[in-house]
Predict the 3D structure of the following.
Amino acid sequence: RGTSSSSSSSSSNQQQKQKPQQPKTSTTEELLNHMQLALIGGDDGGNGGGNGAMSATLSKQAESVDFNDFFSLRRPKDAASGLNSGLKSVGKGALAGAAALIAAPIAGAKAEGASGFFKGLGAGLAAAVVLPVVGAGVGVTQICRGVANTPEAIMAANDGKRWNRHTREWVDEDLVRDGIWLAQSTDEDIYEQARKRAMSEGRSGIGLNGVLNESMGGGNSDNNSNDNNRNGGGKQVKETQYYEILKVETTASSAEIKKSYYELARKLHPDKNPDDPDAHNKFQKVGEAYQVLSDPELRKKYDSRGKDGLGDIPVIDASAFFAALFGSDQMEMFVGKLQMAVMAEGGSDLTRDETRILQDRRIVRLAINLAAILDGYATSARAMVTPTATLTADKTNEKEEEEKLREKAALEKFEAQMKPIAQSLANASHGPKMLKQIGFVYEKQAEQVLTDPVAGFGTWADLGVRSNFAAMEQNTNRTKTQFSAMKAAFGAFGTVKKIAEEEEGYMKEEEGKEKEGVIEKSAGERDGKIAENIAKEQEGKETKKKPPLTEAEIMQRRAQHQKDVMPHILEALWNVSALDIESTLRSVCDKVCHDKSVKKEVRKKRCEALSVLGKVFQTTEADEAHRNEDINQQLENAMRAAFTPKENADEDDSD
């Protein structure tokens, strides 16, 4: 929505923005400064101009808001869902009406004075009447629809179907069907569409790569790229490595380079080459080559001086940052790519539907992986089952007891197999915290299904109390995590505010010292007695004066400030990731435990193994050597993983 308007606006902004000179070297601090400028927007002098990624995200979100984002008319699942939706609509209508009644006269008075006040008052009164009425009407409608949908919800739940929040209908979970859907495309296809839209708007990339490249002067301009390419294309270039990677001639136009990049990116993507251990490296090299050759100025430098003339071009791997920070690289099989990494990689260039599809693909991929792990126990447990149809009652009881012992042995064997894996994962960055979060969801989801008398394998002996209690425990844990995230965010804000106040006080102190120096100089030129009196008056203050800080001391103060605020920021990031992991894994477990592509007894065995796996994960701690890791060291390692150019990273690995 709003593609044409946003496209023209973005294009004009990029043409008017003056590009800063490409730095020869890019330290971590410089990269962070460029990231901040790119995110908050502003011109090259640091003034806020609203052209950053954050502003773009907010504007695109505003453009995509529709009626359902305020007064929801989406189909409710059942009576409880309808009541919840209805009450929200009623509350929103009342609050919006009250806000309009207060805000409209104030806005009118600021714009047109007294006449504007009365105009705003009239508009506010109208809104105060209309919005609550609309909210009440929507609320009643949703409640009635929820009641009408309840019989269908009961029957569908008894049949093992699950409610799809996006399509608003009851569906059967089927991992075979989902696997076929997953294989029909790749995540890269979605990012490619976003890149095409970005390039059509005159930008060189998407996500952090795009905004950082623009802030450092690496933007792509279609208006002059062809001319620059032709001017430099006929010359003898110093290096041809990037041209060879993209399989184009040194005289290739920007359109030819772009076309070749798209074809190679699609062909070499790791998802399409699961058997090639070097697929990720090849894919990264193609992206690095395209980042240089797609920009006229960088291409000109590369043609004349090769890689050495480019400086440290930051090829950012956003997913590598979060993977190194939270250990999700080792845990990718269990948590996938975190949503923060997705947003950093795609940013506001991804539409709402594209973000949802990427998340759906992540859930399906994780569900298939988890089912494969759990089926190791389910298959061995089924192989131990002995037919009891031809046995007598006594023999049947004996066989049942024997099979229970065998199933117990199979579970113990499965547990023993999972412990080394859990230990390896616990030694990763934030490993124990990640494992406890994953294990908690696994255990509670398994318990919820095993004791659910409606859609699971429980009985009505406890009236579904255990299943509901397991669900309540998960909701309580999610609330605690949300509270922790807000607490960490406020802590970071308070620390940053304190640092800013200290810096402001230091600047005022320095200004005061300069003024006192002028006074002392003039006093020396006066009568000696007057100067002596002034000196006595200032004597008490002089004893309290601090010597001016050296440049090294200033840098040390800033480093200490970063150390003070970083734990709060990392804690907030972790809690956001924890909420993402919990929400994702609940959907994953739903698919695995209600998979209609396998028999009911297999689903039950999966739940039993899932409970064991969850307990193993929750009780595993890191080795002594990996405990109490320094937070700043973790952040530095994550920054190196994200910002180190690929070639340098390969050299470090070889060393």
Remarks:
- The chain has a mean pLDDT of 75.
- The first helix runs from residue 3 to 16.
